[in-house]
Queue: 4 jobs
Job 1
Amino acid sequence: MRPPPPGCEDKLMARHGKNGVGVRAARGYDTAVMTKALQKVFEAASKLPDRAQDELAAAILYKLRADVTWATTLRSSLPELERLVAEALREHREDRTTRVDPDDL
């Protein structure tokens, strides 16, 4: 994507408010707006010692990657999950299931 033209960020802030609302794209331009809350976090983090900043950065990246990995895994498992749901519902309709009290487990 091409960089945004000068002043584009100002137009986005005017349209979406001073607090920002996450990532926004304007007419094919790659533009990101960070929320005030996230700005405060990064501002506070910038005052930490270098090692603590690196540890925080690693933890954030780990969490973001884990979220993507989980979403990808779930998406690839959907056909199998749908098959298992259909099988369980069929067995329930055919009265081939047993009611279990969770307290008895």
Note: DSSP finds three helices and two strands in the chain.
Job 2
Amino acid sequence: MSALSSGVLTTSGEVIVAPVSLTGLEVLTDGSHGVTVTLYDNVSAATGNVLYEAVCAATPQTQTQFIPIPIQASAGIYMNISGTGGSAIVYYDLNTNTGGY
């Protein structure tokens, strides 16, 4: 398996609408403001089970967190991002087995 990337995301919203395994998160700051990114097992709102949350200081400007044991998202991933000038890249694997995780 290899991880897929959401590309750089700058606003809150759906990342992917499909069952996936969350494998990592990269948070980018503008160097002056902190950024908080919360990932949910949901596809339409910042509600439901929190998969992962990263609270990052303004520096270093790139903060990468890979998850050694992937976190399952049954619906997909919704990202909520807050903080001036922040962005994020979400890494995930598609769950190709239809019999569950």
Note: The CA atoms of residues 38 and 53 lie 4 Å apart.
Job 3
Amino acid sequence: MTAFRGNIVDQDQLRRPLGPRFFPVSYYEEQLNQASCLNLVTNAVVLWNTVYMKAVLDQLKAEGHHVDDVDVAHLSPARYAHINPYGKYRFNVDQEFPAKDFAR
């Protein structure tokens, strides 16, 4: 709901006069798409953090450091300070995964 010239109007009422020419895809579908992408990225970050944290803990143990299980229980893979959500990411898929490596 938005205050508009003293009246309370629904956001859809503000968009409706513009018609499908300006909003070809429903906002609901766009929100679902954004939520799905956000879930995918979140899951990828948690997976990466989990794998990386395990590797670090294994390395610490291999170097002879004491790693207390009580401390490990308080670690969380949901950290995200190292992620840049506003940057541009470029992946050269052809360079990383040449087509010759995949059976077609």
Note: Strands lie at 2-4, 7-9.
Job 4
Amino acid sequence: MGFDGLLRARANVVSGILNGIDTSIWNPAADDRLEHIARLDTTRTGELGYVAKAIEKVVAHFGDSRGIIGFCGAPFTLASYMVEGASSRSFIETMRFSLSSAFTNLRLS
């Protein structure tokens, strides 16, 4: 069934955006405030090859059995979601972790 099928099957109890954005609420194509996006510097996109490799690993592992939901955020944001398990206003657990020996011994591979 997949995520799309699940949402459609439960359309009477869920609400939100299916397969894209709700342009009746906000249409980025018509938003003049977004002109600066066209001027973004993309000369360093080659440095993001690790992102494609990570996605390839996820797809290879799950195949067509799962959908992929993306999340973008700065390193502290990602760390806080991983440590706190949800959004946080105080980041107490994230700060506690960042001061622990587990954090100082953490190695990224």
Note: Residues 58 and 81 are 19 Å apart (CA to CA).
